[in-house]
Write a sequence for this structure.
């Protein structure tokens, strides 16, 4: 599904190398988790994959179902099935959440040569999915993420994911800032989307989310590289012992 | 001895090309305006309020020709039930206009009104003259003196539908001078719509006298006619507890100068002036607003938003003057530009002048680029760069459009803005 090879990324304006050779394969139907110390490059990886400006790929490749992602515009990557749940969802004053969702759903459909969703069908679907995530109608009416609490913003990301039904979902610290109940809601939302044809890359600092969203593989990222990969037990190891041992082990 | 060389005088050169009616009720007012025009002369580059906008093409005796823009879109306000008054190149078109009869209102043509008893006789030009201090507005004096057509609207009670003035541009060399006077009697309410490019060059004055407890709503669209030029003035006087709301959307036009001069003369009155403008390429748009508070507990708001791309220029000069004794004044002014590229520019001159001590006035002016974080967020959800830019642009303009009181008119303007934005040439 997602295939990253030897990815090297530096900042565009600065001589600062952030990713130093990332290798990662996420298969369809699988959930991969990435953990790693602050500043190790996890968000950078997610941004580079989704096409954010300000970074320069100096080496390596990233493909989605065999198609080169790095050559595409952000909206083309989205239409190809890539989705990033942002670590810091952006507030957009003046653009209604509903307008935004509908524009996004229909833009992707159009890009894929599919028919647009009718207003009434859209409303029906969005209401049902919002209800599952306990996002009330009033929040849907507000401008995108404006006045949303941290946890509400994260739930709104999952709502977007549920509406867009991407093939490859990257979740960047979607659990941070969530209370215990909200974490359960978000995890349920993600689990509902788990399927044969869909891959997940879940970036997190905490084992707790992984109790709800059972990963197939856990990777540890440190200083711009994946330094260790393993099963779910690796997350438990980090939870108990931190990163020092793992770093020492591979040094 | 050197021979004295007569320096060409632009004011006299302009006057020489124009004709004033020799008889009729308005002659005294016109003569008075001509005297005032001669005293100030036409605007010069060095004048304080013409620093950012070159007056040259507005004061040259013969207008620059302007190609007529072929618009294939449905006309704005087409589906609004309204009384239509049509001017073609600045001349009233009776065939295209509706019957000018509507309950609660009388409409006369400036040009045809010969009755000496006419209500307008003692009013025509008075608000314009009043608006000449402290800042001279010579193009408006010229207009009062030489206006060739216009309408005189007297609102005695609230009519059942809006009055809509439609300006068509048909000749590439048309040079129109239009003068309207609107008098809204106590307790009455009028909605006035205006749209269309008018002429190759338009000089328009609208005087609006809003009596105590009266309301005046104005929604104006200056259309997508790329080469047209316009200098327009609104002079409004507001009585006690009255409401004045004026919104203008401007999309293209090589040169537009919109002056709006409002005087709040009765207590508890409200004046809201707003503008949304989208400038693309060779486009110069200037909003010059002067609001004078001369009564107690009045509120005024100026909300101007300009989106500029491909080298367009936007200007805002806005002033709130609070006279001594105008206590409890609530004055607000905001002007903002969204610059979509580095070739475009926004020049702003916000001013406050306050002679009362118990007032709340604020003003702000900002100039910014599109929010890259928001743009990426939208694109990451699959919205194309152009569509995302348009969404953010519309949301930027929203605060100005919100100033229109009627939702259906707001929707029309928003719909039109969206389609205008979507029609980018790149
Ligand atoms: N635009 C930028 N300008 C400057 N430094 C940047 C930029 N983007 C990333 N960095 C730097 O790159 C490094 C990796 O940042 P990144 O956000 O990817 O870390 P992370 O692993 O997601 O950390 P966290 O767990 O705290 O979210 C950090 O040192 C960060 O300061
Ligand atoms: Mg991060």
């Amino acid at each position: 599904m997602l295939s990253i090879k030897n990815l090297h990324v530096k900042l565009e304006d600065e001589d600062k190398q952030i990713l130093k050779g990332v290798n990662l394969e996420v298969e369809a139907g699988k959930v991969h988790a990435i953990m790693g110390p602050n500043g190790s490059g996890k968000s950078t990886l997610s941004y580079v994959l989704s096409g954010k400006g300000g970074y320069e790929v100096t080496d390596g490749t990233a493909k989605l179902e065999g198609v080169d992602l790095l050559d595409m515009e952000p909206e083309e990557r989205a239409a190809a099935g890539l989705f990033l749940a942002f670590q810091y969802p952006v507030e957009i004053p003046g653009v209604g959440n509903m307008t935004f969702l509908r524009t996004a759903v229909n833009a992707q459909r159009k890009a894929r040569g599919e028919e647009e969703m009718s207003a009434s069908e859209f409303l029906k679907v969005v209401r049902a999915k919002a209800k599952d995530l306990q996002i009330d109608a009033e929040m849907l009416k507000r401008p995108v993420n404006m006045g949303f609490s941290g946890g509400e913003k994260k739930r709104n990301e999952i709502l977007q994911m549920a509406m867009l039904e991407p093939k490859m979902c990257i979740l960047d610290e979607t659990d941070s800032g969530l209370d215990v109940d909200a974490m359960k809601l978000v995890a349920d939302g993600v689990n509902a989307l788990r399927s044969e044809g869909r891959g997940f890359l879940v970036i997190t600092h905490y084992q707790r989310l992984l109790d709800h969203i059972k990963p197939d593989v856990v990777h540890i990222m440190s200083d711009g590289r994946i330094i260790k990969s393993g099963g779910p037990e690796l997350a438990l190891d980090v939870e108990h012992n931190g990163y020092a041992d793992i770093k020492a082990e591979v040094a | 001895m050197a021979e004295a060389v007569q320096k060409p005088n632009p004011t006299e050169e302009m006057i020489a090309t124009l004709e004033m009616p020799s008889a009729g009720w308005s002659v005294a007012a016109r003569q008075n305006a001509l005297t005032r025009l001669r005293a100030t002369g036409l605007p010069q580059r060095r004048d304080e309020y013409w620093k950012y906008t070159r007056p040259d093409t507005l004061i040259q005796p013969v207008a620059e020709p302007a190609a007529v823009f072929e618009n294939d879109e449905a006309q704005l306000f087409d589906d609004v039930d309204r009384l239509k008054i049509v001017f073609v190149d600045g001349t009233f078109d009776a065939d295209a206009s509706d019957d000018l009869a509507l309950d609660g209102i009388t409409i006369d043509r400036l040009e045809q009104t010969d009755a000496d008893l006419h209500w307008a006789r003692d009013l025509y030009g008075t608000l314009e003259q009043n608006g000449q201090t402290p800042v001279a507005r010579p193009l408006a004096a010229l207009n009062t003196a030489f206006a060739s057509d216009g309408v005189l609207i007297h609102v005695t009670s609230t009519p059942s539908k809006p009055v809509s003035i439609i300006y068509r541009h048909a000749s590439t060399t048309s040079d129109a001078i239009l003068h309207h006077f609107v008098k809204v009697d106590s307790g009455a309410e009028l909605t006035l719509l205006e749209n269309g490019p008018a002429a190759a060059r338009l000089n328009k004055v609208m005087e609006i006298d809003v009596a105590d407890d009266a309301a005046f709503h104005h929604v104006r669209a200056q259309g997508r006619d790329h080469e047209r030029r316009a200098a327009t003035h609104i002079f409004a006087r507001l009585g006690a507890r009255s409401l004045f709301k004026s919104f203008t959307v401007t999309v293209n036009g090589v040169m537009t100068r919109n002056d709006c001069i409002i005087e709040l003369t009765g207590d508890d009155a409200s004046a809201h002036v707003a503008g949304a403008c989208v400038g693309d390429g060779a486009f110069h748009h200037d909003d010059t607003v002067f609001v004078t508070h001369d009564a107690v507990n009045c509120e005024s708001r100026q909300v101007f938003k300009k989106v500029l791309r491909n080298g367009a220029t936007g200007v805002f000069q806005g002033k709130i003057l609070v006279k001594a004794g105008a206590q409890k004044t609530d004055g607000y002014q905001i002007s903002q530009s969204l610059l979509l590229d580095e070739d475009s520019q926004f020049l702003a001159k916000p001013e406050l002048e306050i002679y009362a001590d118990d007032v709340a006035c604020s003003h702000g002016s900002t100039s910014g680029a599109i929010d890259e974080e928001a743009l990426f967020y939208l694109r990451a959800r699959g919205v194309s760069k152009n569509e995302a830019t348009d969404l953010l642009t519309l949301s930027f303009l929203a605060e100005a459009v919100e100033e229109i009181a009627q939702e259906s008119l707001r929707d029309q303007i928003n719909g039109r803005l969206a389609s205008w934005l979507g029609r980018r040439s790149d």
